[in-house]
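Example A, followed by Example B.
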Amino acid sequence: MKIAVADEHGYVSGHFGHCPTYTLFNIGENNKINEKLTIPTPGHQPGFLPGYLASMGVTHIIAGGMGQRAQMLFGQNGIITLIGVSGPVNKAVEDFLAGRLEMGESTCDHGHGHGDGHGHGDCHGEGRGCQE
């Protein structure tokens, strides 16, 4: 299993497509973290990240928020999305592995579309849509 966490200065980013980095965790036997690697985001290009992260072997994504279209595209690439998560990145992964990760409503997707064809919410009125 490989988990990618939308990372913003060590905390789970509320906006998956706008985070500066992704922290990748390779999980081995007995749910032990074998490797942790932080990579810069490759930038946002609609529809790019699902294939990119899938090609890296990512099986799960943890983020605060993500639009419905992005969730669908990740699902089509065999990646499970875990959204509505907050707090430190390391704790989120530890909680997930222990079966106690608390998820909630996506911090991005509240059904207020932008008419941009992406199906993203309004990200709490910040004037930017959540991206894949």
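Example B, a separate protein, is given below in the same form.
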Amino acid sequence: MGGEAIVAEGLAKLYPGGVWGVRGVSFTSGYGELVTLLGPNGSGKTTTINMLATLIKPTSGRALVGGFDVVREAWSVRRIIAVMPQDGRPDLNWTPMEAVKWYLVARGFSVATADREARIWLERQLQS
């Protein structure tokens, strides 16, 4: 699969009370690439992910995930992505490996495939 998996152009989110969650986020990511958002607390990492995952609507800018607009085609985006919240482990005794693996199983992967994919992606994250 070629092309751009994620396109973010000038994404911004203004919360009630005039608080900006994020302003002017722009980047692209190709299929198969691992992207890491880095920044201090309050810098807009979670807000950006929530906009890309269609959990909140951007105030301005636009984003495409898998070629689908996150506002106009939210249900199409939701069919092709999975989001694991930072505090989303049902069992706090799970390792990161177990959490990723079992979320993949919940998405329909076989246990063996989920195990393999979780290892691949977590190893990539450690190398970046």
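On Example B: Residues 34 and 125 are 7 Å apart (CA to CA).
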